[in-house]
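Fold tokens
===========
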Amino acid sequence: MAYFRHNEPIDATRRQTPLYTEIPEEEYPEEEDTEYDDGFDALEEEEPDPQEEALLREERKMRLRDRIRVLMDVSNLAAILIGTAAILLMLTLLFNMINFLASDMRNSFTLFQTRL
């Protein structure tokens, strides 16, 4: 394998250079004894504002009223559709009964006339 040069001596300068150079640590000034505040502690510790609670309660009541109103409108629509279907069914039954009675009366009168 002529491509790789295994028999060549390793350069002495290469051997002495380290793989990495050490970086001296920076000295930071000492901090005072203050705790880190991420801003979330204040949210948990504060007492809720009564006015905001009243607004939230009022908003919940309004949402509940709106939901009930929508539910009532949907139930009214369903009642109207069912009532219309029931009326159409009754009208169909009434017309079928009238047609049946008319045809039965014709048949009965023709039977009476032929027997006489």
About this structure: The chain is about 65% helix and 0% strand.
